[in-house]
Amino acid sequence: MERAQVQYGRTRIGFQVQRSRRRKQVSLVVDPGHHRLLVLAPVDVDVARLRVVVRHRGAGVLEKLRQVQEAELPTTAHEFVSGEGFTYLGRSFRLRVREAEGPEPARLEGGWLVVTVRHRLSLAARRQAVRAAVIACFKTRSAESYPSDWRTASPGWTGWSGRCRAYSCATRLGGGGAATRTPSCG
């Protein structure tokens, strides 16, 4: 795999070139897993032309690289206290911690994730109990929503006809700026 770089303003943009005989046009892909720009190009396009393409799309490339870095910033640790927010399957839930004589399984009620713990627990033990209940709740609901065996998830599916390739979830440039999954079958 070739490596090259281009100067865009005061920023130097490095990229890797992956060539293919089947490819007809140049594509720029920001790989979020490696924080790099990947240029997919036909075999007959020289590196000088690829530098021109990357320089032309420099603003978009730098913006996508910045978005990838911001998306991976560490989040704050959960405290597992009432009122704290959790996101699950694209929905937001607020945590409501209740005390009772004995613990009960956590449950989702409307926009609330309700967890019941025993009376008179120390702060550390209470947080640990709430954490365990939240994790158990999410795991249980995930197991119900997403069967581990694909045959039970789609019983009518008989298999692929032909050859199939599934690419990684990389952010593509030039397609309206939206991140897309690019499976390819053929």
List keywords for this structure.
single chain, 186 residues, alpha+beta, 2 domains, five-stranded mixed β-sheet, four-stranded mixed β-sheet, 4 helices, 34% strand, elongated, disordered C terminus
Strand line-up of the largest beta sheet: 1-2-4-3-10
Bin the helical content. Answer: 25-40%
Overall geometry comes to elongated
The topology string of helices and strands comes to EEEEHHEEEEHHEEE
- In the residues, how many domains can be counted? 2
End-to-end distance: 25 Å
Structural class: alpha+beta
- Our Rg estimate from Cα atoms comes to 24 Å
Mean pLDDT: 82
Task: Identify low-pLDDT runs.
Answer: 175-186
The fraction of residues assigned to DSSP E strands is: 25-35%
Largest sheet: 5 strands, mixed
| Count of DSSP-assigned helices | 4
Q: How would you summarize what this structure contains?
A:
This protein is of the alpha+beta class and 186 residues long. The protein has two domains: 2-73, no CATH class; 85-145, no CATH class.
Report what the structure shows.
The chain is an alpha+beta fold and 186 residues long. It folds into 2 domains: 2-73, no CATH class; 85-145, no CATH class. 27% of the residues lie in helices and 34% in strands. The protein contains 4 helices and 11 strands; from the N terminus they run ββββααββββααβββ. The chain has helices at 47-56, 58-71, 123-145, 150-153; strands at residues 2-8, 11-20, 27-31, 36-42, 85-88, 91-100, 104-109, 112-118, 164-166, 171-172, 183-185. The strands form 3 sheets. A 5-stranded mixed β-sheet has the order 1-2-4-3-10, covered by helices on one side. Strands 5-6-8-7 form a 4-stranded mixed β-sheet, covered by helices on one side. Strand 5 and strand 6 form a beta hairpin. The radius of gyration is 24 Å and the shape is elongated.
